Amino acid sequence: MFQRALISVSDKSRLEELGKHLAAQGTEIVSTGGSAKFLKNLGLKVKEVSELTGFPEVMDGRVKTLHPKIHMGLLARENNKEDQQTLSEMEGVLFDLVVVNLYPFEATLKSGASDEDQVEQIDIGGPTLLRAASKSFERIAVLSSPEQYDLVLNGTPDLKTRRWLAAQAFTHVSGYDALVSEFLDASEKKERSLSGRLVKELRYGENPHQQARWYSQVGSTSGWHEATVTQGKELSYNNLLDLDAAQSCLSLLPENSCVVVKHNNPCGVATGSSPLDATEKALAADPVSCFGGIVAVNGNVDRALAEKLNSLFLECVVCPSMTEEAREVFQKKKNQRVLLIKDADQFQAQKKRFISLWGGFLIQDQDVPDAWSSEWKVLGEAPTEAIKKDLAFIWKVCSQLKSNAIAIASDLQTRGLGMGQVNRVDAVEQALHRVQKFHPESKNLVAASDAFFPFPDSIELLAKSGVRWVIQPGGSIKDNEVIQK
Prior knowledge:
Blueprint: E1 4-8, H1 15-24, E2 28-31, H2 33-41, E3 47-48, H3 49-53, H4 68-75, H5 81-89, E4 97-100, H6 105-110, H7 115-120, H8 125-135, E5 141-143, H9 150-153, H10 159-184, E6 196-202, E7 212-217, E8 228-231, H11 237-250, E9 257-262, E10 265-271, H12 275-285, E11 294-297, E12 300-301, H13 303-310, E13 316-319, E14 321-322, H14 324-330, E15 337-340, E16 352-357, E17 360-365, H15 385-398, E18 406-410, E19 413-418, H16 424-438, E20 445-449, H17 457-464, E21 467-471, H18 479-484
Parallel strand pairs: 1-2, 1-4, 2-3, 4-5, 11-13, 12-14, 13-15, 20-21
Antiparallel strand pairs: 6-7, 8-15, 9-10, 9-11, 16-17, 18-19, 18-20
Helix pairs in contact: 8-10, 13-14, 16-17
């Protein structure tokens, strides 16, 4: 049972349930503004903060709880004689329950509000209350979310639980502050916080013996957590990595494109005259590797395309929309994961990529290759418009492969992809092997390399196999020697 609770919430979900429970237990309720009005309208006895402090809410509610009498009641140590004496002299009171959630800064940000309105949603008093109460977790239970109310409704939290609640409150405030910081100035800073919100506990990680959790980034306006999973088994850690790799590549391509991914690498990519045409070309690019892969399409999926996909074993299918007939076809394979994403065009808006390392993490910009540019330096025979399209296409695909990478294409279809090799010659040989295996009659082949060619050997191999145009970033001290070859 609690002696005195301080309640100040923006989200009033379950507040009626909690308020009535506390009142029935004989807990004195001290509250602010809208929260006090809400509780009083339920017929509950509530003391407003201003009655306790002798100081009214001012500046349109900007100053409510920022008062010594409130914070003495939160920070006073129960077994400290000096604290208790000061509290008595100042006619303060102790709180043993604090219920606070913050202004809806994130929701307001997502709504596209003006800067002025957004600044008004920067909560000052709320985080201060949460931090002060959490510091006193040995005697105060802190509820920072309606999801935690059951811990009080079903009893009195013990010390271990109070410590956990304090940690949750600090985490919540940290994420909130990080989002405010990003809003005020999105440029790179000397200190950076990453804040996530748990989406789901995953069955396991990359391997069965590894634990894994899925978090959404606080403040994100789109992402896989917003996708609609229309059917199929639960998404796995590896599924999510492959989905992201597929969408990363697809986001670079025009309408009516398809990407097939296996183990984080595209294995078949194509642009066609329709979603069905693009998908057939992508699957035909490397039909062996596509088995058990993830297929991402950036057009509407109809019955014919659904039947094509259902004829194969795939881990996931992701698209922006589908017909009702396509949905019925997919339902014939109930374990087949099918996802709808509404904000696929927002993928590149996620401008940064993070990766953890020992003692820290790295941040880099998204790799978004340019379209064909007149500034690109052409050496040798000038490519036709069709060849330019193929070169721009394969340049984008190659950027999505693990280095060392070589990508070969013709007619907006990958014909051979070599990736993840420890030297460029092996990547070339791997790509050419797939060309010979699946597309031996290919003509007008173009190739892309994700980095410069340190020696002429890779170019010589490509030329002997019928590749007439190569796009690469250059930068080797032997560029001229390689070009002359």
